């Protein structure tokens, strides 16, 4: 795998994961304002963006599993950090949205 290609994949993961995290945080803000439909829509958009990042990661894992060693550099590690942070943010956003809904119902 060419070094430039690895860089592009890493940047792609960072960009998609960053979008996913931003949308998840915006969904929390919408829920805080009582806009639950908007919050759930943003969270769904976040998950879609996260899937794009995850798909790139899966390609790398498949290559490695197939015997084509994927060199690990700081940029790739950074991209993985972004992806995992986005996934955690999505899970927490879902719970926070649920809590805001429960609070409004009482």
UniProtKB/TrEMBL annotation:
Protein name (Swiss-Prot/TrEMBL): PTS lactose/cellobiose transporter subunit IIA
Gene3D superfamilies assigned: Phosphotransferase system, lactose/cellobiose-type IIA subunit (1.20.58.80)
Organism annotation: Collinsella ihumii
Modified residues (Phosphohistidine): 78
CDD domains in UniProt: PTS_IIA_lac
Highest rank taxon of the organism: Bacteria
Lineage, top ranks: Bacteria, Bacillati, Actinomycetota, Coriobacteriia, Coriobacteriales
Protein's UniProt keywords contain Transferase: yes
Keywords linked to the UniProt accession: Phosphotransferase system, Sugar transport, Transferase, Transport
Stored PROSITE patterns: PTS_EIIA_TYPE_3
